[in-house]
Structures are given as structure tokens and as C-alpha cells.
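User: Could you check the structure of this?
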Amino acid sequence: MPESFVEVTRGDRVESRHRIHVAVVHAERGLVAGAGAATYSSFVRSAIKMFQALPLVEDGGVSHFDLSGPELAVCMASHNAEPFHVEAAESVLRKAGATEADLACGAHPPMLRSAAVALTRAGRAPSRIHNNCSGKHAGLLALCRLNGWPLDGYHHVDHPSQRRVEVTLATWSGHREMEIAVDGCGLPTFALPLDAAALACARLAAAAADQAPAPMRVVSAMTTHPEYVAGTDRLCTDLMRRAGGRVFAKVGAEGYYCAGVPGQRLGIALKVEDGAKRASEPALLAVLHALDVLTSADLDALASYARPEIRNTRDEPVGEIRARIDLR
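Assistant: Sure, the predicted C-alpha cells are below.
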């Protein structure tokens, strides 16, 4: 397939280029479009949190623990640790009979600068609940409690909760041979070809469109409560809010993105080869526009992500970031 790039300009010159790989897969017809290498293999990181939360929903955990839509959404979040994120994650822990001490993720400052500043001004140090993955970890602890599995060591690859996640992802993606490493939050992460990750998203999107109970609940939680999936000034949130249910989207570290389009039964997986986050957002929006999922008006509304300006220390515009995606 033709090469595709995200370009970074300064003045009239292209100063940097990020190579992009994309797979677009239909739930029944398979690969329908792509750019770069559609079979490019990479660790999916946080872009597949839908499939890490799906076992909790399939096993009846939402009803058992009386989880709200926002609480389920935060189980799939890479959140900013804004107060409402922290409250939702803490609520999932309480309902599961777990505490912050049970979380296996490490502490880091809130991703949103204003939330980090507020925490410092309150005289508090960041704790595990402020980790952007704390909701996912809380959801996995709830899965353990629901099934009578030990909470201790739930983040290890040989724990029943992680074996269940691995089987879930393998089933939906159709890819059984997955290299496993450790993610930034301490959980296992899986290496998949892009077309396999896109197939998983396509099947999830199609199942939600067909009103299969667990997939529909997962997708609905993301698209109805997008602020819990990411937060203020984050593409996942602003895209899903703008799209109004047309798209679910989830970012992963190192320039990875997954998305699903229920109405078209499509899944999308995208990887920036050099891992640059600044390239992943314009690239994803360009792909969604090329597929007629987003209109030109949508792109205008999301312009700060679709074609962000480069500004200098005087706050003067000196360039821009723009996608050159040749989707075939």
C-alpha cells in the first residue's frame, strides 16, 4: 500500500514527517482499506481497553455491582484524573470491596495540568488513583471479586483475570499468537498486526449495532459518557462527543489508536511508526474523514486536533501539523 505521513511544517517547509500505518476492516468482509503496512505489528497498549473491560460486562458485573454508565466508561479510560474521574474509579473500587491499596498501577500526576496543579495546591501528592489507568485496574479488581479470584497479583500474566483478557482479545481479533510484554501501568500488553486489532474493533462495532448485550453496553458507555474515557482537551472525548454515537475511539501510548464505526460495521487500527502522539490525532481524523464517517464540518469543529498549529514562545503561529493519508 502507498506510504502515508503526518507532516510538521515550519513556514513553507516540511520540517518533520511521521510515517503512518492504518488498517480498516469490515466485520464480515475483512480488510477494506489501508495505508502504509496494514499488517504492521505493534503493542496495542491502552487502545484496546474495551476488551479488557468486556469480560466484566459479559460475566454480569455491571448488574452485580450496580455500575453506572460513567463507572463502566472509566473502566475503559486513560483519564486525566479530574475529580469526576477519581470519584468514579473510587466508586468502582468500593462497590467491588477493594481499596486504592489493591491497585497495582503506580502513581503519577494527573494528565490534565490544571488537575495536577490543584492537587499540589491542596498539599496532596499523586497516588495510584490518579494513574490514568486506575479505572481499568478497578474494573479488573471487580472482575476478580465477581469470579472469586484472588485480588493479589491480578496484574500478572498468569493470573486468571489476565488469561481471560488474553482469550477475549484473541477471540475478537482472530489472532491467537500474541507477543506479551508489560504495559506502562503494570498490566500485560499484547502485540497484534493492525488488521487483527481493527478486526476486533469491527466485530465489537457490529455486535453493538446488532444490539448484542455486552458489546452494546461497552460501546454505549464510551459514546454516552465520553468525558469519562479521557477528559478535558482530549481527542477521545471530543471526537465521541462530536460524533454522537457514530464512532467509539480509544488512544494508546506510542502513537496507537483504535476506533469502531457501528453504523458501517468498521474497525480502524492506526500506528505512528515512530510513536509520536502529535501525529496520531490528525491521522485518525483524516482516516475517519476519508471514510465519510466525519464531515468537513466535523473536522472544522475538531481543528485543534485535525490540523494543530505550531506556535513559538511568543505564541505566534509558525507552522502546522497536517495529515497526508493515502487510504486505498
